[in-house]
């Protein structure tokens, strides 16, 4: 019978405590999923403060992707951040915006590599990243109808 080696999450727990202190009531939830993986959920707008804090405090400057999920009445946007310095850690910053008015401030000024990912989420789910330097189409064809977002649950393909 093999034994799994138990890996400490002390570093991640410490990072989470620092995030809670920095974000205060803007942090809705935070937990360590497993070693080297932290999840936080913040109020809309607090994603910028979280990402800026991580960049300045822990040199977290790499965004591996930004994803979006249609939750029905809301759209969840997840910033997948990566800390390369030891202890290497993935930090997922989640926030929700109303589907009826899906607006969120850009983070391109904090993490320039988020440019294309924000454009992709805009194309496919309709989230407007306010302050983005070039929020033009990147995935969908130029003749795709305006206001039609193929990753929304209510989208139907044309017959």
Give the CATH H-level superfamily of the domain at 10-101: NADH:ubiquinone oxidoreductase Nqo5 subunit
The CATH architecture category of the domain at 10-101 equals 2-Layer Sandwich
Approximate shape: elongated
The overall pLDDT, averaged over residues, is 93
What structural class should be given to the helix and strand makeup? Answer: alpha/beta
The main sheet orders its strands as 1-2-5-4-3
Approximate helicity band:
10-25%
| Number of helices, where a helix is a run of at least 4 consecutive DSSP H or I residues | 3
For the largest beta-sheet, the strand count, sense and barrel status come to: 5 strands, mixed
Amino-to-carboxy terminus distance: 56 Å
Given as residue ranges, the uncertain stretches (5+ residues, pLDDT < 50) are: none
Compressed to H and E, one letter per element, the order equals: HEEHEEEEHE
The name of the CATH topology of the domain at 10-101 is Beta Polymerase, domain 2
Tell me how many strands there are. 7
Rg: 17 Å
**CATH level 1 class label of the domain at 10-101:** Alpha Beta
Beta strand %: 25-35%
Describe the structure.
The chain is 25% helix and 31% strand. By secondary structure, the chain is of the alpha/beta class. The protein has a domain at 10-101: NADH:ubiquinone oxidoreductase Nqo5 subunit (Beta Polymerase, domain 2, 2-Layer Sandwich), CATH 3.30.460. The strands form two sheets. Strands 1-2-5-4-3 form a five-stranded mixed β-sheet. The longest helix has 14 residues, at 10-23. It is elongated, with a radius of gyration of 17 Å. The model has no long low-confidence stretch (mean pLDDT 93).
